Amino acid sequence: MEKPNQTSLLVEFILLGLSAHPKLEKMFFVLILLTYLVILLGNGVLIVVTILDSRLHTPMYFFLGNLSFLDICYTTSSVPLVLDGFLTPQKTISFSACAIQMFLSFSMAGTECVLLGMMAFDRYVAICNPLRYPVLMSRRLCCLLAGAAWVLCLLKSVTETVIAMRLPFCGHQVVSHFTCEILAVLKLACADTSISEAFLLVGAILLLPVPLAFICLSYTLILATTLRVPSAAGRRKAFSTCSAHLAVVMLFYSTVIFMYMKPKSKEARVSDEVFTVLYAVVTPMLNPIIYSLRNKEVKEAARKVWGRMQASR
């Protein structure tokens, strides 16, 4: 008799989260809820402003708008699930819902890695080659770059999710994480996961060290150019902007690299959950603040949009 597929018998997973620390669940629920609301508000305002104000229809704000939309989708794919887990004693998720959540979170994270690299290139061209900027960063090229990032990362995530979820789990269903994070789910597999891990490693190399090296090179050239600026005030402004941008980039990349390029272990670690929160929740909250809401153009555009909304009432 043919042995039944053990994966097909598994209809749901149990998300362990902070079940062992019930007192921490209430505190984390409030913190993550407030952070999620800030993410929705900050990124939502940026999207609306960049659409309604024609002066912000430039490549820089086009990429920023994409980043804001991506951050909203990224956090929405996982944060409601995390919040629900803090409130309900039965922390279960169906097999299919787990696969969908894994796919969405993974594809959004990959797209953000690529998009941050594109944004660094845009700033390099704008500052180091200002005369050629309108030609090099045409609207058509920006749309092609952003579209390619979304499509390629979606296809990559589909492949990795299908390979991971087709593994036999032999009834193992307790995921030691807040969400269906792919590494946490792979630890439950009762078969060889080397193929899935190989795909994850190749993807991590393409989406982490490569874009990060490109970002560092771009900002190094930008800083070299700003050092030649005669105005001390101009140099301070450039250094302040670049350091703020790099701080957010380093926070995002360092936590993701720690998660996906460290030696694999079958044992669940609290640090895995902490680092996931850092790159999945904290960074999307900081992005609109660091990249745009400190920007005078964005603040002026937001005031004008708000004024028009008030006048139309």
From TrEMBL:
PROSITE patterns: G_PROTEIN_RECEP_F1_1, G_PROTEIN_RECEP_F1_2. Keywords: Cell membrane, G-protein coupled receptor, Membrane, Olfaction, Receptor, Sensory transduction, Transducer, Transmembrane, Transmembrane helix. Pfam families: 7tm_4. The keyword Transferase does not apply. The keyword Cell membrane applies. It is a multi-pass membrane protein. The chain crosses the membrane at residues 27-49, 61-81, 93-121, 141-159, 198-226, 238-261, 273-293. It is found in: Cell membrane. Belongs to the G-protein coupled receptor 1 family. Putative odorant or sperm cell receptor. This is Olfactory receptor.
